[in-house]
Amino acid sequence: MRPLIVLLIVAAFVVGCTPSGCRREQDPALMPADSTSRALAQEAPVDSLALAWSAGGTDDEPMAFPRTVRFLPEGDLVVSDAERNVVYRYTREGEHVATLTPEGLDVPYLAGVRGDTLVIFNAGADRFDLILNGQRIDDASTPLQRPSDQSLAYAVATDTALYAKVVGADIASTLGRVAPSGQMSPAMELPGPFWRHAGFLRVWDDRLVSLTGYRPVVDLLPLPGLDARPDTLALTGFDSPMLERSYRFLRGDVDNAPVLTASAAPAGDRLYVLNLRPTNMRVDIFDREGQLQRVLSGAGVDPGTSFYPRDLDVRTSGDTVDIAVALTLPSPQLRLYRWIREDSLRATTDTTTLAR
């Protein structure tokens, strides 16, 4: 395993600082769009997230670095541990079902779910594997060719295709469909600095969603062919105590950009965005036009304790919304939050985010 790759991949992002690690800026200046969003956020309805359960692995195999989480079709949860190189499986009620240890896991990221098969991107080995019944399917792996060891790769799987995004300071950031040879074909070059594109990939109906942790925007591309330039969707109504520092970074006044979001997951016609806060859980809900609809807030942690969620997935059923979150602080664990939504926010069809 290449140590530099592992270090880069296991780190949440590459150039930024987290809300708990960044110094709060005294300069109140904001970008005009951020100022408008902050005003809208202050008027948004706020609901509470109830913590249904949490789990930290088992006594024999405690979690070390839970990095990605996904719901399975029947409602079970899987979470990948990028340090232990295992995948934990839990029921919807929080019961540990199994710890999967298929051969070849190397900094595993959950790229998607195809029925009863997990699609895992092994970032330490640059390889996609299919996992069925806890075992890797022979002769079903796909390599990923990336141009530099000093780069970050993000991946997502649909039922029929694999997609990847590769970003790095010394290369052109690219996104594309992964061919059986491992090449991205076509490889679309993403404009702007590499940090602008550092973030997970998701699938939202017939569009690929490229996330970024550093600005409140997402890029949308048509599936399956990615045959158009990215359409950037601003998340209007997004607020963060780090927006002032973000503005200073864009002006060149500070070196490290603040990380604003850790992940996002679509469900129905809503996008659930994991808004990083240093002491509590917060999820912002946006519609397809990028307009803030509601803020969900979870209970805070004890004073002096940091809170760092890494990924989330969402499952809706009737009025119930389950939000699964992988955290590394205050301790490595998987949490399931629950929210009972109002009729006005019910999606036209209840949807579980699969292959996100």
Summarize the structure.
This protein is mainly beta.
What does this structure look like?
This is 6-bladed beta-propeller. It is a single chain. This protein is mainly β and 356 residues long. It has a single domain, classed as TolB, C-terminal domain (Neuraminidase, 6 Propeller). The protein contains three helices and 26 strands. The strands form six sheets. It has a five-stranded mixed β-sheet, with no helix packed on it. Strands 7, 8, 9, 10 and 11 form a five-stranded antiparallel β-sheet that branches. The radius of gyration is 19 Å and the shape is globular. The chain starts with a helix and ends in a 16-residue tail after the last strand. Mean pLDDT is 89; it is low at 1-14 and 347-356.
- Indicate the CATH class: Mainly Beta
Rg is 19 Å
Q: Tell me, what's the shape?
A: globular
Number of helices: 3
SSE layout:
Layout: H1 3-10, H2 32-43, E1 46-48, E2 50-55, E3 66-71, E4 77-81, E5 86-90, E6 96-100, E7 108-114, E8 117-122, E9 127-132, E10 135-136, E11 142-143, E12 152-157, E13 162-167, E14 174-178, E15 184-189, E16 201-204, E17 207-211, E18 217-222, E19 231-234, H3 243-251, E20 261-267, E21 270-275, E22 280-286, E23 292-300, E24 308-317, E25 320-329, E26 333-340
Parallel strand pairs: 1-23
Antiparallel strand pairs: 2-26, 3-4, 4-5, 5-6, 7-8, 8-9, 9-10, 9-11, 12-13, 13-14, 14-15, 16-17, 17-18, 18-19, 20-21, 21-22, 22-23, 24-25, 25-26
InterPro entries: Quino_amine_DH_bsu (IPR011044)
Protein name: 6-bladed beta-propeller
Organism: Longibacter salinarum
